[in-house]
TrEMBL record:
The chain crosses the membrane at residues 67-87. One of its GO terms (biological process) is phenylalanine transport. GO terms for cellular component: apical plasma membrane; basolateral plasma membrane. Pfam families: Alpha-amylase (PF00128), SLC3A2_N (PF16028). Residues 110-191 form the Glycosyl hydrolase family 13 catalytic domain. Keywords: Membrane, Transmembrane, Transmembrane helix. This is Solute carrier family 3 member 2 N-terminal domain-containing protein. InterPro entries: GH, GH13_cat_dom, SLC3A2, SLC3A2_N. GO terms for molecular function: aromatic amino acid transmembrane transporter activity; L-alanine transmembrane transporter activity; L-leucine transmembrane transporter activity. Residues 42-103 form the Solute carrier family 3 member 2 N-terminal domain.
Length: 232
């Protein structure tokens, strides 16, 4: 049996003389091609030259241009929304705090600046020499602890402990503190009992006196508890 393939027609001719039925000189039969070969022909990848030629087509150029335009429009829209939100957002306003709520406090005992034998006064003057150092640490308020004797009376509370220095030296200390941008508070915890039990004109006059000298305030420990016990 001989198979004849005719180009272009996709059919083959089979010629045979030993058949029982005479089919004539030839009979045309379809030429079968495997399906995998057909798929390979359909899925054949494009070459680089073919891809470049397709990418340079007018349709793809317009598509890419529109994508780039949409990208920049979207980006500018998001940027505009962000700027609008930032501009229209309310500005945070820091609350105004009094100085006793925002300053750094530093407790200081002038008695620690006395001589070893504690026979010579001038501790207040030595404390004044440390003011620049305290200011460099960020201190805003100095609490003087032990400026008065524990046994001092309200009538004599206008005088500091003579072992620590004189009243003019204390005035100079107040002046230097204000020049350095710091405030001074007097610790009256040791004199709390007499102040609270004798809340009279003497106590008010003594406290007013120190306020007039430049003192910014006073510290009285457990004042609420003491007043409660006094009421009971």
């Amino acid at each position: 049996m001989q198979l004849k393939v005719e180009a272009g027609s996709g059919y083959g001719s089979m010629i045979g003389s030993g058949l029982a039925v005479n089919l004539g000189a030839s009979e045309t039969l379809p030429l079968l091609i495997p399906e995998d070969e057909l798929e390979l022909n359909y899925l054949k990848p494009l070459t680089r030259a073919e891809l470049e030629a397709a990418a340079e087509g007018p349709g793809w150029k317009k598509f890419r241009s529109r994508l780039v335009l949409l990208f920049w429009l979207g980006w500018l829209t998001i940027l505009g929304i962000a700027i609008t939100v930032i501009v229209q957002s309310p500005r945070p306003v820091a609350p105004h705090l009094p100085w006793w709520q925002k300053e750094l406090f530093y407790r200081l005992q002038p008695v620690l600046f006395m001589d070893a034998d504690r026979t010579e006064s001038g501790a207040i003057s030595r404390v004044s020499e440390k003011l620049p150092y305290l200011k460099s640490l960020g201190v805003g308020v100095i609490i003087l602890d032990g400026l008065f004797s524990p046994k001092v009376s309200l009538i004599n509370m206008t005088q500091i402990d003579p072992r620590l220095g004189t009243l003019p030296e204390f005035h100079q200390f107040i002046t230097n503190s204000h020049t350095a941008g710091m405030r001074v508070i007097l610790d009256l915890c040791n004199n709390k009992a007499e102040i609270l039990s004798n809340a009279s004109d003497y106590a008010q006059d003594s406290l007013r006196y120190w306020l007039e000298q430049g003192v910014s305030g006073f510290e009285i420990c457990n004042a609420d508890t003491a007043f409660t016990e006094k009421v009971k």
